[in-house]
Amino acid sequence: MDYAANLAMVLPEIVLSLGGLVLLMVSAWGGRSVSRGVSWVSVAVLMGAGIALIGPASAGGIAFDGLYNADLFAAFAKVLIFFAAAVSIVIAPRFFARTSGEDLRPEYPVLVLFSTAGMGMMVSANDLLTLYVGLELQSLSAYVLASFMRRDVRSAEAGLKYFILGSLASGILLYGISLVYGFSGTTIFGDIATAYAGAEGSTKIGLLFGLVFVFAGLAFKMSAVPFHMWTPDVYEGAPTPVTAFFASAPKVAALALSVRVAIEAMGPATGDWRQIVIFAALASIVLGAVAAINQQNIKRLLAYSSINNVGFALIGLAAGTAEGVAGVLTYMTIYIVMTLGSFLVVLQMRDEHGQPVETIASLSGLSRRRPALAAALAIFMFSLAGIPPLFGFWAKFAVFEAAVKADLVALAAIGIAASTIGAYYYLKIVKTMYFDAPAPAYGKSDSALEGGLIAAAALFVSPLGYLLIPVLGAWSLAAARTLF
Q1: Which member of 51, 109, 151, 405 has the lowest number of beta carbons within 10 Å of its beta carbon?
Q2: What pLDDT score does 79 carry?
């Protein structure tokens, strides 16, 4: 395949990288005065990267001698990633202006672009080296974003914790990659699968050890139990737009990468990695639900909610079928809208002086003070709990159905039973808003953009979302089948 064809397949990442580099120079010369302009141009760059997915970038196949895979599965994940990144950029300027009293620094959208470029490489990786380079580009940008508010102690602490624990996880992942390479003699996914299929004796044992370490490193990136410890502290300490970004785009990238590694590189060892995935799924569901019950900070609660939801998505991966992978994609599509909508509501939680208020108790009586905002948050909470007829129910149904079809009935049954635990803390928030005595009122919000995004997210996860099932189901299944 000629070089031009290869470049056409990586066009989204080229757009993001060149856009980020140009905007980095503009930021260096323009300073804070160009922050809003850089933010909107960054959104345009993300839209351009999305448009670039049309054509070879979504159906071109293998590029650069097996390093990169431009298929429909990667394109599906990239659409979700670009959307989440764009939302996290547009909501940031107003947050920083009101919280720190100064305009957003233009480095923020540039870092998001570079992180997104890394995520694009992750979901299209067809080689362990591409996997690692993309993951590290995403992670290094994320460490800086977590500590973006330099004068805020919590933000600095979040960035430091994320960096230290993330470096440890990267070391674990790299060790697993070295084992897989050492015992298979290759880094290309297809050849690794061949090695797993024919492995015997000590070679098989070595490859299994490599499998364990690779999945451990990936579990950290998606914050699945038992590698979830960084999530609550980082989500609480990071600026809220950054937390919204962490809870959406990197989750999609990490899960998509894990699915690709599991199916394409380690498909012959399904019986081995399935045990790891089932444990991580059930542990994430239970711990995410139980640990969230006594949380007093809304961002920490949503952190445990994200852990809980990763567990449900992993049930689809455990199925190991095209229907299971389609369930994962469907779940993540609905999940990022519910999560972004929830964090948009958190952005509205400010006192009369405009400073953030993050306690759950401050939501008391919100239905009487801000009825529309309370209704939107209630919709997001009911949907995250998977209560019909909201669209979040369909997300859980898709992964449970795939598990049952794969003869994992016990896993589906335990997942359904454990989901009732999570319903408790979601309903607790609704009860606080509608039945508790009113707390001091929040300051008035005059952001039509945030209000419009909240309304759009609420409509998407409402029963109207079921109208999208034929399109979403067909697209996710077609994307999943490209891996098999």
Answers
A1: 151
A2: 95
Residue 196 has pLDDT above 70, yes or no: yes
**CA distance to 340, 355, 437, per residue, from 296 (Å):** 20, 18, 17
Distance from C-alpha of 129 to C-alpha of 298, rounded to nearest angstrom: 38
Residue 102 pLDDT greater than 70, yes or no: no
pTM, whole model, 2 decimals?
A: 0.94
Peptide bond into 226 cis (omega under 30): yes
Quote the CA–CA distance of 387 and 415 in Å, as a whole number. 14
Determine the straight-line distance between the first and last CA of the chain, rounded to whole angstroms: 23
Comparing CA positions, the residue from 148, 168, 188 lying closest to residue 35 is 148
**Tens digits of per-residue pLDDT, 125-173?**
999 999 999 999 999 999 999 988 878 888 888 888 999 999 999 999 9
* Opening angle at CA 400, ends 396 and 405, nearest 5: 150
CA 18 to chain centre: 24
* CA 30/CA 17 separation, integer angstroms: 20
State the chain's mean pLDDT as an integer.
90
Rounded alpha-carbon distances, angstroms, from residue 474 to 256, 322, 323, 330, 423: 18, 12, 11, 10, 29
Given a contact cutoff of 8 angstroms between Cβ atoms, the answer to whether 311 and 450 are in contact is no
The amino acid sitting at 87 is V
Residue 388 φ/ψ region, left for φ over 0, alpha for ψ in the -120 to 50 degree band, beta for the rest: beta
pLDDT in tens, 247-264: 999 999 999 999 999 999
Q: H helices of 293-390, where?
A: 298-319, 322-347, 366-369, 371-384
Query: What is residue 212's predicted lDDT score, i.e. its pLDDT?
Result: 92
CB 303 within 8 A of CB 358: no
Decide if pLDDT at 11 tops 90.
yes
480 to 69, 72, 77, 320, 475: CA distances (angstroms): 14, 8, 11, 11, 9
